[in-house]
Amino acid sequence: MTPKSFVMLVGATAVGLAAALGAVVVESRSAIGAAEIDQPLFPELVARANEVAVLRFRAPNSESTIVLDGDGWGFLERARYPVPTDNVRTVVAGIASLRRFEEKTDKPDLYFRLGVQDVGAEDSNSREIVLETADGEELAAIILGRVSSTMQFDPLGGMYVREPGNPRSWLVRGTVALPPTAAEWMVQQVIHIPGPDIQKVVIREGGETNLTAVKQDEGEGLTRYHMFPEIEGMRAVDSAWKQVASGAVSVVFENVRVASEIAGAEPTRVVEYTTSDGMTVVVTTYAIDEVNWVTFSASAEAGSEGVERADGINALAAGWAYQLPGYKLRAIHRDVADLTEPVPEEAPAGGIPGLPPGVTLPPGVPLPGGIQIAPGAQLPAGQLPLPPGIAVPGVAP
User: How far is Cα 181 from Cα 188, in angstroms, rounded to an integer?
Assistant: First the structure.
C-alpha cells in the first residue's frame, strides 16, 4: 500500500469517527470550559496524518520503532522486517480520532487507578506511542491507560490517556488497539502449506537422509504415509508423520533475526516438504545459545503450479531466521524413533487371534465382536479374552 492510500484511509477513518462523535451532545465537565470538550486530542495529527513516517512504541519491558520504507513499513529493531500497513494505519487512525471527554486526575500517586503512569514507573503497565514525521517532528505523543467501563453508552467506547510530561490525565472518546506483542506488529505468518497438499516429507540430520515418507491414497477419502523406500519389517507411523507435516501449516513466529547472524552454524535438522503442485519447502533448524532458529526456502519445478507459491515464500522468508512457538518445533523435531514401527504379524489363514496355541472352541461359539470360528479350528496365541462363561481346559481364566 502506498503512503498516499495510507493517508486516505487514515483520513477517512478519522473524519468518519469525528462525525459520529459530533452527533453526541456533550455537556462541559471541566473547568477549562466547553470549548475544549469533544475536541480532537491531537488536532495537528488529524491535519497531518499523511506525514507520519515513524511510530515509536514503548511498554514496560520493550521499546520498538516502526518506520516507513518507501511504500511499506518496517520494524527497525528487527532489521526492518515487514510490518503490515493495516497495523500502523489502525493505530494512527485510532489516535487521530480520540476526543476529549472529561478531565481526570493530575496527581501522580493516583495515575495507577487509570493506568496512565509513566512507562518507566514502578509497577507500570501503561503503553506509550509517539508519532513523528520523517524529519523527526512530533505529531502526537500519548500514554495509553485502561479502557473505561463507564463509556458503554458510546459506540466508540472510551479510555484514559495522558500526554507525556503533562500531569493532567483525560477520559477520551474512542480507543486505540495495539498488537499485544512485538512480533504481532509484523507480518507474522511465514508460510502456510495445507496438510492435504503435502505429498512427501524428507528428514535429514548430519547431512544424511534419515527417513522419507510418501503419502498414498488408501481409498474412501483416506490417506496414509508409507516409508520410501520400504524398510523390511517396518512401516511408517502415520500419525507421527502427519505431525511432522503440520510443521509447515500456518507457521507464525515469536522472534526474527537476519539469517546472516547465524551463518556458519551447523543445522540440527533439515525437513523437506514436497507438495502436489511441485513445490518443495526446506525447513532448516539451528540451535544457537540454547535457542532454536529456523530458516525457510522454497523451490518449484519450472512450469509447475508451485512456482508462484514458492516465489511468495522466498519473497518474505529469504534472508531471515525465525524463532517458532514450541508446538511447531516439536512437530518439526519429532523423534526419528517415533516415525516407524514393526509391521503387525498377520494371522495364519483360517486363524483368529485371541487364544493360546492349540486351544479350540466348540462349534458355533461366538467370539467378541460377532466373530465366528469354524468347528475344530485352532487359534494362535493372543490377548483377546473369552466371552463370559466360556472355559477352556488348561487355560487360566
Answer: 11
The total number of residues written for the chain in this structure = 397
Confidence of residue 25 (pLDDT cuts 50, 70, 90): very low
Q: What percent of the chain has pLDDT over 70?
A: 78
361: cell is: 472352541
What strands, in cross-sheet order, belong to the sheet with 54-59?
A: 81-83, 72-75, 62-69, 54-59, 127-132, 138-147, 158-162, 169-173, 99-103
Sheet holding 255-258, edge to edge: 222-227, 208-219, 198-205, 269-275, 279-288, 291-300, 320-323, 255-258
The CA-atom distances, in angstroms, between 63 and each of 66, 127, 130 are 10, 10, 11
What was the pLDDT predicted at 335? 96
- Alpha carbons 57 and 204: distance in angstroms, whole number: 41
**CA terminus-to-terminus distance, the chain:** 76
Taking CA atoms, 55 is separated from 64, 74, 83, 87, in Å, by: 8, 10, 11, 11
pLDDT tens digits for range 113-126: 999 999 989 889 99
Phi, psi of 306 (to 5 degrees): -80, -5
Q: Which residues contact 199 (CB under 8 A, 6 or more apart)?
A: 214, 215, 274, 275, 276
* Residue 152, C-alpha cell as written in the block: 458503554
Other beta carbons less than 10 A from residue 293's beta carbon = 24
DSSP letter, residue 388: T
H-type helices in the chain, by residue range? 3-22, 43-48, 85-96, 111-114, 238-245, 306-317, 326-332
Q: What is the dihedral of CA 68, 74, 75, 78, to 10 degrees?
A: -140
